[in-house]
Amino acid sequence: MPEEYRSRRSCLAVPGSSQRFLDKARGLAADEVFLDLEDAVAPAAKEAARRGVIAALNAGGWGGKLVAVRVNGATTRWAYRDVAEVVAAAGRGLDAIILPKVTDPGHVVWLDLMLGQVEQDTGDEPGRIGIEAQIEDARGLARVDEIAGASPRLRALVFGPADFMASVGMRSLRVGAQPAGYVGSDAYHYPLLRILVAARAHGLAAIDGPYLAIGDLDGLAGAAASTAALGYDGKWVLHPAQIDVVNRAFSPGQDDYERAELILDAYRYYTSVEHRGAAMLGDEMIDEASRKLALVVAAKGRAAGLRRSQRFEPVTDGSAEHPPRGEGLGQPAGQG
Ligand code: GLV
Ligand code: MG
Q1: Is the pLDDT confidence value at 200 over 70?
Q2: CA of 217 to the centre of ligand 2 (A)
Q3: Atom 1 in ligand 1: which residue has the minimum CA distance?
Q4: From the CA of 208, which ligand is nearest?
Q5: How confident is the model at residue 4 (pLDDT cuts 50, 70, 90)?
Q6: Angle made by CA atoms 101, 95, 302, in degrees to the nearest 5
Q7: Which burial class, exposed, middle or buried, applies to 64 when counting CB atoms under 10 A from its CB (0-12, 13-18, 19+)?
Q8: Could you tell me the pLDDT band of residue 317, with boundaries at 50, 70 and 90?
């Protein structure tokens, strides 16, 4: 877990061809917004959308959100101009480029080189703009480890369920939902875990793709809770109504967050003051592995804006227990 963990719980897709949606997206509570030049934009509208996206980036006002542009895939005729024109004209307003349909590490290398060329030309900080690579077909999944290691600009791997379902022949039209008739528990488990492991092996975030049934917020909540539990950092959203559901699913619960912070404090105390590698916290044993787990939950909680109300207090009666008392925080603490 990187020291400065940045929340990417909800990643809002905004069609680059719609001025209305571009304007509206600024005020929404998504952690990341991406302006789409790919599948949400019809071929005849690509050039105008590119101009609209440049204008929207230069107008700013994104309020601290991560801002990305999804360009067209590296093998399309639009891709080189998407990158060159958007980054040259509006790169300073951009945190990352999302590259769809990555099937080969060479696609990422191409984008890395293109970004470097534009940065040299404009004098912008070299290497600042990140890359998020979408893994959305069988070929991309088969090479996901190489793709994840293809550039130091990579920030995230993103699962693309719609394209993936089509690529493997999944017999369903309900993107992000379980296919009817499947008797296993989660038809997406393999690609999701495969992408997650490749992402983590290279220090990258892992983002789940969209849930297309906008009206089915319960289904979305279930799908988001499942990938959040697996370890994913966030999920795409396609509509403002999906943002809160997804933000909630990817924020640790308050109790888990408090517990994680207590574990970190307690572990620090027991290892540095009492020189013990393992100790009891409440009725649970904590050790170095517990600390690593707690770091994940604490980082996600802090980045999601959670605040702690309990402090760790060591007990001095010889046992390694610590009934925390909420010292200085005006709130009685429960058992840690
Ligand atoms: C997203 O791009 C998807 O294919 O699901
Ligand atoms: Mg796709």
Answers
A1: yes
A2: 21
A3: 160
A4: 1
A5: confident
A6: 105
A7: exposed
A8: low
Is 301 close to ligand 1, i.e. is its CB under 6 Å away? no
| Ligand 1 proximity of 36 Cβ (cutoff 6 Å) | no
Q: Looking at this protein, which amino acid is placed at residue 190?
A: Y
Q: Is the pLDDT of residue 336 over 90?
A: no
CA 131 to CA 134: how far, in whole Å? 10
Ligand 2 center–CA 77 separation, angstroms? 17
